[in-house]
Design a protein that fits this description.
4 copies of one chain form a homotetramer. Chain A is an alpha/beta fold. The first copy, chain A, has 2 domains: 118 residues, NAD(P)-binding Rossmann-like Domain (Rossmann fold); 177 residues, Dihydrodipicolinate Reductase, domain 2, CATH 3.30.360. Chain A contains 12 helices and 15 strands. In chain A, the strands form 3 sheets. A 7-stranded mixed beta sheet of chain A has the order 12-11-7-10-9-8-15. In chain A, strand 5, helix 5 and strand 6 form a beta-alpha-beta unit. The longest helix of chain A is centred in the C-terminal third of the chain and has 20 residues. Chain A is globular. Chains A and D meet through strand 7, strand 8, strand 9 and strand 10 of A and strand 7, strand 8, strand 9 and strand 10 of D.
């Protein structure tokens, strides 16, 4: 039984609190949030202790591991403090908005890197896992083209987006990690994008982008993002090789289809957003974390994976503004 | 080059005229229709001779074969006269509304049965042919359940329906033939149905039915018919055996799909009706007829197949009115 | 918080134990099973008390409600005893294999019928609920044809089947209830079936059937069952009305599709069996039971619903053996 | 009745010969091919005159229009000569491999541009036409992302490819035209690609590419090409806007689907190649050409459209070799 504390009582913190609460091998001990009163309601709902001083969890002997769900700028400090206190860590993405800061983190946790996992939840989606296993088994041959469509149902509010680090570090970072998961190291990044939504243009960000990544093998990953999608949370991956293609199609709440004068085989909207779409992934991610911590093995994805995705995100930003293709070392 | 005459310049006659005209091995020589003026326009469109006396085509040495597209009550006389005149015959379904009359036909053409083919066009649909070939190859094992959904987009006008012989002889007869095509001889018929449409109830017919046929092997065919279908011409067959299932899905004019707030993966309506849905089938049917006539072999389906489907239709009518299951000899 | 005891520690008893354990408003107090040792392991897994004397749960003040998962012949006695002891009851289907015995049950619980719910889990499947709600909202118009395909992945062992009451009372009974759920009262039953599997023929049962039910409105339900299905647990419902059709399609563990030389858009097998396919339904069923008990309202489906499905099952058996259509009063 | 001559009796020439032959408003007068004997067999099959001297068709008063299906280097000379002789022209793509040469062509036919159409057949595909009409009707809002997947079933032989002008001018040029058809003018081109196939690397070409085009509106088109595809001729377009998405899915020879232990809903391979996939498009293309010529209006796409696609192809080649994004004037 792994005893966990969650830092951050916001939306994603609540997701992890519930996932921990539902896991037979995990116990939710505490929820910490410096915002007065924020932790209490969540802690009550899951029978955990609320803390307003985040440092409390580092010094709590009843806590084996920390799940970091705070705002991104807090991540590195909390990772370092948690590791220093002997806790294992599962941190939300991105590790930080700056590669330099991630490098400071890596230096600070040197020797304990295997105690920290980064929450790229999509690697644990049952569809993605099946696709990856079948690719690894050679079902489509060596990959040549990967296409990742990732569109949110609606844009987050501008106050959130303005501190998000921009679309590449906030949203596309999941897809950068997925491209690495499927293709390995990326050697070149090329990004195009546009702000069709006034509020997003107003904060200097874009809402729609197309990014091409080249891998060392010559394969490419094409990423299509949009902050809005009328049909729901559009999440698809297609991998193509000489022997065939595999795709993960969108999921819906039921399999009901309608046929009539307005059209045929009409299915429902896609699952609304990441909480619903990746519920099973969050659970499998936690399970991998627990298993790794208890076995003393390094969980994956690691901080180095988090760093690699961030490097691609920075290159994408540079490509977008410079209108250049950006090679990676 | 087979030289053909078409009897009957109505809708289905025009279908055959076009099909003949498009076939590289066929020549449309004449179109006969006793309704004054009816044949002329069609004949002109296809560069054929128009005749108002049907008998003209029997005596025309330039005619090798006759395609009978007249009203059902005329079929038998025209089959007999054509065969007597040495012509090969492709007749529309049903051969007649009475089994006794079909037996008279068979007696009259005795020795020349191989010169007459019945136009159960669906046997020639590319999807049906593929399904049948794969069943014959053992892909799903010995058949256990066949499900045939056949729904028209809209009911024909009452004046047509009143002389149609009723839903079983006019519409379901295609499905009875399909069940025989897939399962062989039928040993029991059970029919349920209802008139939801006032005009159809008014003429003593039904518009919706469910018919179960049992084959000698123990397999069953379930037929679902409706005279109306909001989504278009709904034509599906599913065959099920111990090793799997094969189905022929509906076809559409394009493969376009829409996804948005009103739903996802919305396809278009099914192809509107039999002219569009079975265009390729009519062509393949004619091709089989021509090939058979030129080789001197018996085309299939034969008048005996037409009789067998009619026997099932009569049993279905008897089952519907008596509320009994009807065994067939 | 409703405190529940489960009677019967077999497969379905374990399903309910887990469902209760996962429900925030339910507490699993005890598991009773007269087979020595059977309850202990399950009770341990869910932190409940094990009992070998079923009567213990009737006399336990800490038990508010009983979930009956014992063999069918025990159901009625246990329903009566539970109700007499003041417990609410959720019983697995069928209530009994005999309508007369169900009538005895109804007489014994007279005045407390609203305290007993019958576990026709499929009514609570999210797809079925959505379909029913859209039908009720008039989306397809008044129903004319309902098609229910229900095929098990593999036949249960002969020792189980021999005491199951036969395919209609054991398997099709779910579909009979579904037909009533969608169409209301049934007025005629017609059944055809066959044993293709030697072991099943050996015990005098059939493994494949086609049943047609007629409703008072003139609509029909067609049920297609098979004890085996190579593709997995095949569970589909299609409802057809004058304005369109709605169907619940099969579900799979992921949305992965493969395209290559062996074919395109190949999806995985259907969810293996009822535990996986109806996991959400069992949860929603329990939720409805808890809500009803706590509100003092009558849960649905009731014992009368269980009786009605059994009456249809008996009629189907009679139809199968007599080769007659069987009218219902 | 428009009287046409075809120049070039190869594969695509035969496609046009058949299409003309099947069109009720067109007459195939002659087929010219300088390769001794090449025209004769094709001409015989369609009842046309064969010519070994291409110039014969220019001087033939019985020819109203010329369809140019010769090797690409011959196109411009033949366009100019045909127009000079007063013939209307439908030429295969690309107009030429050099933009400068296309400009010479435009200068030579100045004043008669409306007499020349370029054969970008995909614009006439029924699915593409429906998609375009629905986009124009505002169904998905202003386009933001277009994704074009275009994969050939198998690579053409190296001797053909070596003179093809490379993947961008030979294959992707169709997709460049499609992007312009849907998005209008393109302002930036970015291309990545690789040769996975030894023979193709050997001739200095690539077999797999990902190209991103930016339009003036900020929308992007992503093109994914492969010279090989195990599943068949993979031809898909998805357009995405704020109100939804429309896609043209792949087509197959039938709608048959298989479900069994190896997977479910398995459809057949895609239509094998362009002859089958775009048969209806070639017919509609010819129809538009005939209608335009007879009305004296300018057919579309024009030589200017052909030039614009070629400009993009040249930019893609430049981007590929320079690893730069290439702006277009």
């Amino acid at each position: 039984m792994l005893r966990l504390a969650v830092i951050g009582a916001g939306r994603i913190g609540q997701v992890h609190a519930r996932t921990i609460s539902d896991h037979p091998g995990a116990q939710l001990v505490a929820i910490a949030d410096p915002v007065p009163g924020a932790a209490a309601a969540v802690a009550d709902a899951f029978g955990a202790r609320a803390a307003e001083r985040v440092a409390d969890v580092y010094h709590d002997d009843a806590v084996d591991a920390v799940v970091i769900c705070s705002p991104t700028p807090c991540h590195v400090d909390q990772i370092i403090a948690s590791v220093a206190a002997g806790k294992a860590v599962l941190t939300e993405k991105p590790v930080d908005l700056s590669v330099a800061r991630v490098d400071e983190c890596l230096a600070a946790i040197a020797g304990s890197e295997h105690r920290v996992m980064v929450g790229f939840n999509r690697r644990f989606d049952p569809g993605v896992r099946e696709l990856k296993a079948r690719v690894d088994a050679g079902e489509v041959g060596e990959l040549r083209q990967v296409t990742i469509v990732s569109r949110d149902p609606a844009a987050a509010p501008a106050p959130y987006l303005v501190s998000s680090g921009g679309i590449f570090k906030d949203m596309t970072i999941h897809d950068f990690d997925m491209a690495r998961f499927l293709l390995g190291d990326i050697v070149e990044v090329s990004a195009t994008g546009h702000a069709f939504i006034d509020d997003i243009r107003g904060i200097g960000d874009i809402d729609t982008c197309s990014v091409t990544l080249s891998s060392a093998s010559g394969a490419t990953a094409t990423i299509l993002n949009s902050r809005v999608c009328a049909a729901g949370y559009d999440q698809r991956i297609e991998v193509f090789g000489p022997k065939g293609a595999l795709e993960t199609t969108n999921l819906r709440s039921t399999g009901v289809r309608f046929s009539g004068a307005s059209g045929t085989e009409t299915a429902g909207s896609y699952l609304p957003f990441f909480l619903e779409r990746y519920a099973a992934a969050y659970s499998a991610e936690l399970d991998h974390f627990i298993t790794s911590v208890e076995a003393g093995t390094a969980p994956s994805p690691s901080v180095l994976d988090g760093r690699a995705a961030l490097v691609i995100a920075e290159a994408a930003g540079q490509s977008l503004s410079s209108r250049q293709m950006v090679p990676l070392a």
